[in-house]
Amino acid sequence: MRGTMMPSSMRDVEMSRDNSSPSSILRLASGTPLAVGHLRSVFQHPLQSDQLIKVMRADAVASRWNAPGRWHKRLPRTRHYVGYLRELKEYIGARARAPDVDVPIARMIGVVDTDLGLGIVSEKVVDAEGDLAPTLAAVYEKRGFSPELDAALAAFLRGLLDGNVIVGDMHAWNIVYGSDSRGGPRLVMIDGFGEKHAIPISSMSRAINRYRTRRLHQRMLVQLQRLVPVGG
Fold first, then answer.
1. 3-class DSSP state for residue 11?
2. Count H helices, E strands: the chain?
């Protein structure tokens, strides 16, 4: 972490050593998440002010992976961490296949042990004040499809296509508008990227992946207008 003082928002999340293990774990359970999603909770990294840690919600794991009849969800070796692997693999794949393209997905850093289970670490995308960047839904709610937002949406889609990014899930709540170490402000997908299908057809065909990405982008725009009231 930069500086000599730890902000009060970060002091309640501490580094701790597990006496039963030689490796250190991060204590997050006593802190307050910055955001809570359908499957994950998002915490400020206690030692790196420009990074976030996402951990799986225990209730989501219990209902989606560990409930009776959900045996098929437990087949992958990575179980409920399968999404971590998918996103890390896609980020690495984008960097390998399109190293000169500044792909509009979160910069993935790695994984870390926490007292809430394994966490996935990514760079924080922030607004002009340094706070967590607003979602696309929040930006749209304020002013609708402004010329600036239209341009940002076009650049976002172009970046996904140029980088041949495989998108598994695209909606107005997993895309944020802000800046990170790569620049900005721009739209950045913070999760939901990576191949989800058992038969990896998007991985096998760039043309099919482009078609699917365009379709997901269009569906997201329709959903945005239907679910988010402007000025509401």
1. helix
2. 7, 9
Round to the nearest angstrom and report the end-to-end CA distance of the chain: 38
List pLDDT tens digits, range 4-55.
Answer: 344 444 444 444 444 445 458 999 999 999 999 999 999 999 999 999 999 9
Closest CA to 217 of 123, 100, 136: 136
Separation CA 55–CA 51 (nearest Å): 13
Q: What is the CATH number of the domain that holds 113?
A: 1.10.510
DSSP state, residue 37: -
User: Which tens digits make up the pLDDT trace of 148-188?
Assistant: 999 999 999 999 999 999 999 999 999 999 999 999 999 99
Taking 3-state DSSP, the helix, strand and coil percentages for the chain, each rounded to the nearest 5, stand at 35, 25, 40
| Structural domain total, the chain | 1
Q: Which domain holds residue 38?
A: 8-227
Residue spans of alpha helices (H) in 126-200: 136-143, 147-162
